[in-house]
Write a structure and sequence with these properties.
Strand content of chain A: under 5%
Strand order of the largest sheet of chain B: 6-7-8-3-9-10
Radius of gyration of chain B: 18 Å
Shape of chain A: globular
Number of strands of chain B: 10
Largest sheet of chain A: none
Strand content of chain B: 15-25%
Structural class of chain A: mainly alpha
CATH superfamily of chain B: P-loop containing nucleotide triphosphate hydrolases
Mean pLDDT of chain B: 93
Oligomer: heterodimer
Low-confidence stretches of chain B: none
Number of helices of chain A: 10
Shape of chain B: globular
Radius of gyration of chain A: 22 Å
Largest interface: A-B, 18 and 22 residues
Bound molecules: adenosine-5'-triphosphate, magnesium ion
Number of strands of chain A: 0
CATH architecture of chain B: 3-Layer(aba) Sandwich
Mean pLDDT of chain A: 93
CATH class of chain A: Mainly Alpha
CATH class of chain B: Alpha Beta
Order of helices and strands of chain B: EEEHEEHEHHHEHEHEEHH
Order of helices and strands of chain A: HHHHHHHHHH
CATH architecture of chain A: Orthogonal Bundle
């Protein structure tokens, strides 16, 4: 049974890889067509990197805020955070970007595409991080709370010295995974014309009709950003597994 | 120690964990043992005495003054006590030494140098100096429990509360922890412990409270209770547990 499964998986995936490789390799490339646009690609890639890095920081802050709201002893912040998280997680990012930019940002008269894109992306990612953080905090055994109370720690001291340091280790792998998602999700910001990586590829394609040549760099460009994070996430997962 | 409970009750949902218990202990009692069948209410009674839990009804008086009911005042009471639980009591992300130092710094306001010095004294007394740099996960159960005892003793608690301190340990480690507790008993430390180790209770405790289904079935000096139990329930219990 095991052998049959490994065989099937190998054949299916092997065939898929071969087919894609054949398609990619057999194309008659006209790299010269997109060569004049290399600077646009580089700018787009840098913008993706920048907006992802900024959204990473902002989403950690918002995520932490949402988590503290959800763990609050008071009903109102708990409901509000819960509603925020559920709405964001239950609707497509594309819709959020469109509504956020054309409705909300427009109403308050904010027209920085980069700025609005950054905030929407951060909110989106924060909703997922909030769930990861909350799961991490709730996974710390009750005995740790009892222990901290017995020592005479206040609730704040318990979070600061006992719960959060342990929770951080537990949520690192999943958070790293979420950051990789964040980088890929930033590609949707082209719909409001943020000049990130995907947007540049689309424009190059529109100008040159060199579809393959315009889109192939995306694969490489995104992979360079996400692969190290994926490695880091695996490494952290392993380390965490040993510690237990 | 002067401990009095007046119609003390603690109810969890439909369970009367401690049910209308009134006992009165005078200064002649230095070591109090709580015994009785599993689920009888020993742990709950111990947590009530130590200020870790607020009674549903009734009151606890220590040295004549009733324990407060509000969290901030109770925390002050807990800070004067030391607690040790069955297991998993240490903070796994800190070294053994840091487990002892952190409360001294954060709760008792000692300087780091002072706290480290004090921790050094206690671990030396408990013959643990070789293990202080390790994390709890790298220590045996017995060593972990001795470190936890060192942590509970580091601030010279007025009252040391031990909840089945050896139940999670195998026989050899049991012995090493019981030796240490016996030493503390002899040094004059005031102790309340819940235990299934009848031999130890008989030898080291001055007074014994027998709890079953939340009720205090019998309370007497340990000589009286173990040699001439008054009730059929206690003599049957002792016969059963002493048989092996
Ligand atoms: N936090 C709690 N929530 C709900 N029920 C509880 C809680 N703590 C204790 N109980 C219940 O109260 C009763 C007494 O429990 P307790 O732990 O005090 O007994 P015990 O004598 O210490 O037992 P053991 O010897 O097994 O440790 C039990 O029926 C238990 O299920
Ligand atoms: Mg118990």
């Amino acid at each position: 049974m095991k052998l049959f499964l490994s065989l099937t998986v190998s054949i299916l995936l092997g065939a898929t890889f071969c087919f894609v490789f054949w398609v990619v390799a057999s194309h008659d490339y006209q790299w010269s067509a997109i060569a004049p646009y290399w600077k646009n690609f580089l700018n787009g890639w840098t913008t993706t990197l920048l907006i992802s890095a900024a959204a990473l920081v902002l989403s950690i802050l918002i995520g932490a805020l949402l988590t503290s709201g959800q763990l609050s002893p008071h009903r109102v912040p708990r409901w509000l955070s819960r509603a925020f998280v559920e709405i964001i997680r239950g609707t497509p990012l594309l819709t959020q970007i469109l509504i956020g930019y054309y409705l909300i940002a427009d109403t308050i008269g904010w027209d920085s595409r980069f700025g609005v894109g950054l905030v929407i992306l951060s909110c989106f990612s924060a909703a997922y991080l909030a769930e990861i953080f909350r799961g991490g905090i709730e996974s710390i055994p009750k005995s740790q709370w009892l222990s901290a109370r017995a020592i005479g720690f206040s609730e704040f001291q318990t979070y600061r010295h006992v719960i959060i340091p342990q929770a951080i280790r537990r949520v690192l792998p999943a958070s790293a995974g979420q950051f990789a998602n964040l980088i890929k999700d930033s590609s949707l910001l082209f719909v409001i014309s943020v000049h990130e990586f995907t947007m540049q590829a689309r424009e190059t394609n529109a100008n040159t009709y060199a579809t393959f040549e315009s889109y192939l760099p995306l694969i490489l460009g995104y992979f360079i950003l996400t692969f190290p994070i994926s490695l880091l996430s695996r490494h952290l997962e392993k380390r965490f597994a040993y510690e237990n | 120690m002067r401990i009095e409970t007046l119609n003390l009750s603690k109810i969890y949902g439909a369970t009367k964990a401690v049910d209308d218990v009134s006992v009165s202990l005078g200064d002649e009692v230095q070591v109090l043992a709580l015994i009785g069948p599993s689920g009888g209410g020993k742990s709950t009674f111990l947590r009530l005495l130590g200020g870790l839990e607020v009674p549903t009804a009734g009151a606890v008086k220590i040295d004549g003054s009733p324990l407060p009911r509000d969290e901030d005042a109770l925390r002050e009471v807990r800070r004067k006590n030391g607690f040790l639980f069955q297991s998993f009591n240490l903070f796994p992300h800190l070294t053994a030494l840091e487990n002892i130092v952190l409360p001294l710094v954060e709760v008792y306001g000692r300087s780091r140098a002072e706290a480290t010095g004090r921790a050094g004294e206690v671990v030396e007394r408990f013959r643990l100096t070789d293990h202080v740099k390790k994390q709890p996960g790298q220590l045996s159960g017995g060593q972990q429990q001795r470190i936890a005892l060192a942590r509970a003793m580091a601030h010279d608690p007025a009252l040391l509360l031990l909840d089945e301190p050896t139940s999670a340990l195998d026989p050899e480690m049991k012995a090493e922890v019981l030796d240490l507790i016996a030493e503390l008993c002899e040094s004059g430390q005031q102790i309340v412990l819940s235990t299934h180790e009848m031999g130890f209770a008989k030898r080291s405790a001055d007074h014994v409270v027998f709890l079953a289904e939340g009720k205090c079935v019998e309370d007497a000096s340990s000589a009286t209770l173990f040699e001439n139990p008054e009730t059929a329930m206690v003599s049957a219990f002792l016969q059963k547990v002493m048989k092996w």
